[in-house]
Amino acid sequence: MTFGGEVKNELCRGELHRKCCAQAEAYGVLLYCNTFTGGEVRIVTEHDAFAQRLPLLFKKAFKITFDRLPQGEGKHIFSIQDPKKLQTIRQTYGAEGEAVALHINFAVLEEPCCRMSFFRGAFLAGGSVTDPKKGYHLELTTSHQNVSREMLALMRECDFTPKAAARKGNSVIYFKQSEYIEDFLTAVGAPVAAMEIMNTKLEKNLRGSVNRRVNCDAANLDKAVEAAQSQLEAIRNLERQGLLDKLPDKLQETARLRMANPEDTLSQLAQLCDPPITKSALNHRLRKLVELGGKEKAEP
Description:
three-stranded antiparallel beta sheet; 11 helices; four-stranded antiparallel beta sheet; 2 domains
């Protein structure tokens, strides 16, 4: 199952305790579903848990049943065309007559719990979220521009910070930052999914940190090897020219140690000196040898 499917599964496990929250969730579903007009409500979903939740949700919110329920496999299609049932729904949200104003009636979303339920319903009907292993993106999509514009205002009023866009005739509200997605999912009832995003982000950061460290260590190793080769060449040049034995004792000692231990680091070579010296002092001696041997580079 996709990560988005797991998120909706978690949302659908939430109990329907309060009638006002059930009505708010159903309101989000209706404004983000396939069809919500004066003559029909039509909800189409491929998600099994959402399909199981819908009849319970509408029973709790309106005390009504669907006129059409899913049949067979494939997409789950729910429909209401009965005028009395549609009137019950319209009256719940303050619509008069047979008209359905595709706007958000903020009066039915005054309580914070109802607002989060409304967001949950909208996500279940028209939302999607990307697997955090691939990226961070959560969006709500509807064909109703007024609804999307008002949803954006409502979310910002609730301290969320989504962005808005238009895509193929639809209005989209979306989050791209992982922490904003985590906050939204936690608020609407999917804290486990939010935690999975956090854990995935931590794993990515840790993996990136390890890779950077490995790359840095590899680069430093390459520099050390290159420097050691320059030092060895300089020492051999001095030896061929008969100059090595004429150098001060400290430089001769350093040259012998480097020739005998070509793969040792500066710290290791510094400890082999008699008496041991600092890494900085040894580096100074090696630079002097490279300079005398006719080389321009020494190990930094």
